[in-house]
Amino acid sequence: MDIGEVLFSIKGRTGRGPFVLLALVGWAMAVGFIPYDPITVLRQAPVQSIAALGFALLAAWTAIAVTVKRLHDVGLSGLNSIWIGLAELSGDPLNSHSALAMGAAAGSIIAQLWLCIEPGSRRPNRFGNPVSA
Fold first, then answer.
1. pTM value?
2. Angle of helix 16-31 relative to helix 99-117, nearest 10 degrees?
């Protein structure tokens, strides 16, 4: 599987390695280690806004594709990425005034951590053959 298939296709399976790398980049952006503030960029010149929107859409699709394939690797439907993504959008679990939003965000973090450590199925499943790592 080439890098394009890993990052952009939702078919097949992927191991823990690409998912962990993606999760680390996402978490680094969320806590500010990788500075990226799309709202500030969108308030700039139109060309920068278009570039920022394009980058955000590309990053979102990459996150969806890798998460779907990682779910496939552990034998689950990629549709589970919907609740993980929506829960992730609920915000920071430590900086929320709503218990429901706090629980949803914490659930997303737990699901991502589980996908980081859970080994994939060693046998072929309905999503394809096993991958290493």
1. 0.81
2. 140
